[in-house]
Amino acid sequence: MGMDVYGQNPCTDEGEYFRNNVWYWRPLWSYVCDTFPDLVGATPELGHYNDGYGLDADQARKLGDAILEHIESGRTEEFRRQYYADLANLPRSECQWCEGTGVRRDKVGAEMGMPDKELSPEVQIFTGRTHGWCNACEGIGTIEHFAHNYPFEVDNVEEFAEFLRGCGGFTIC
User: Fold this and answer.
1) pLDDT class for 113, splitting at 50, 70, 90?
2) pLDDT of 41-67, one tens digit each?
3) What does the alpha-carbon distance between residue 26 and residue 39 come to, in Å, rounded to a whole number?
């Protein structure tokens, strides 16, 4: 699923259209809402859905300018670093495919020889076993927190800000 953001009256090429898949959009829009709450309209939480939320031309331009100022000051990069530091501190989850054992023994695992596969030297040291693997968790038994699927990149924020400055208002579809 993706978020298609259309300029209502674009005055630049960048202002015609902006798209993010849902993985990139959610942290981008959350950053915008958290950082610029006075510039995102009355019901900014609706921006997490692709059912027509948007801003008018003046609101969009002001938001784009504020975001670019934030980027230029280095605060967006600080936000990015903190975002990834917070992700790094999230607890790992038990792997659903091997039920936390590190060895996938279901039909797929058996057909692919996972119970007999030799582990990498690093995983052998970590787990204390030499064999038995799971393609989801690399044989460890845990996986990263689901939030790791949502990247946040300054380049993406900047591209959105440029869209905002030239879109003449937007609608999220």
Assistant:
1) very high
2) 889 899 999 899 999 999 999 999 999
3) 17
> Considering the domain boundaries, does residue 146 fall inside one?
no
Mean pLDDT of 77-101: 97
Residue 116 and residue 168 in one domain: no
Q: CA–CA separation, 94 vs 9, rounded Å?
A: 49
Q: Look at residue 29 in the predicted model and tell me its pLDDT.
A: 97
**Alpha-carbon span 166 to 57, nearest angstrom:** 9
Give the contacts of 31 (CB within 8 A, at least 6 positions apart): 76, 79, 83, 152, 157
Are residues 29 and 102 located together in one domain of the fold?
A: no
d(CA 32, CA 158): 12
Domains contained in the chain, number: 2
Asked whether the beta carbons of 23 and 2 are under 8 A apart, the reply is no
Question: Is residue 118 located within the same domain as residue 53?
Answer: no
